[in-house]
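A brief tutorial aside. Many learners find it easier to grasp structure tokens once they have seen a single protein encoded end to end. The record that follows does exactly this for Uridylate kinase. Read the sequence first, then the structure, and try to relate runs of similar tokens to stretches of the chain.
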Amino acid sequence: MAHALPRLFSRRFCQPAALPRSLNSTSRTSFRTSIRNSPSPASRRGYASGNPNSSPLKVWPFVGIALAGSGAYALMVKSRVEMPPTTEQIAAPKKDTPTFSPSSVTVLFVLGGPGAGKGTQCANLVRDYKFTHLSAGDLLRAEQDREGSEFGDLIKSYIKDGKIVPMEVTVQLLENAMTEVVEKDKDHKGKFLIDGFPRKMDQALKFEETVCPSKFVLFFDCPEEEMQRRLLERGKTSGRSDDNAESIKKRFKTFVETSMPVVEYFEGQNRVVKVLATKTPDEVYKETREKLEQRLGKNF
């Protein structure tokens, strides 16, 4: 059957046309001559290649389609080249064990809404208890401005829109900073306050799985109205692109929807130290020290 169709088409269309039986010999000769002299199917089609009588107007539509297709393909390639890196491109290889052991490295996650005073309290703890303060936001802002950074544009766009930067980027920046500190310590130990992280559950799980399990979350609880007032005041001198009313509103929404479930998750494991952050900075710090001593001991 596979060869039947070609033979069928060759018999019907490729052989000379049958001559009518009613024609006499002279008429039959004339008929054959007319067949030979009649224009071929190709010449009757104006768009056939190589036909001098073909109309150029009938060729241009096909040329136009080809050019349009080429242009669209070029634009598609260009847009793919200019696209920011995706999380698939930055995913780190899986690890069987975390990089650091909690017996030698102490990690406290420091959470609170934007403007809750996390940075101020972390600075106090660094001064008095020799913690290393790692701000996820500061690391990301430094990386976005680092010359030659592969993910600078990606980070800028996420921060501007008040969105959470892909966790692969943030976790790797934190691990790099911790490694630098631990390697410099003679005992290869370290105490870290990780400020503004984790902001989503997948970040928390990824960090504890691959970098180091945390002791607990230090959560500074502050009403939204107070945080907004503080941020707008800070925005007058901070120079930060996200200290404006529009970005602040987006950041509040993101915190409530994504970060509060993290606090609730750790609270369910009795791994949250909550501090009311509406008082003066000194009063907040006094309460912070008292609660950390209860959890970690006097000489934490």
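Self-check: Residues 35 and 131 are 100 Å apart (CA to CA). If you spotted this yourself, you are ready for the next section.
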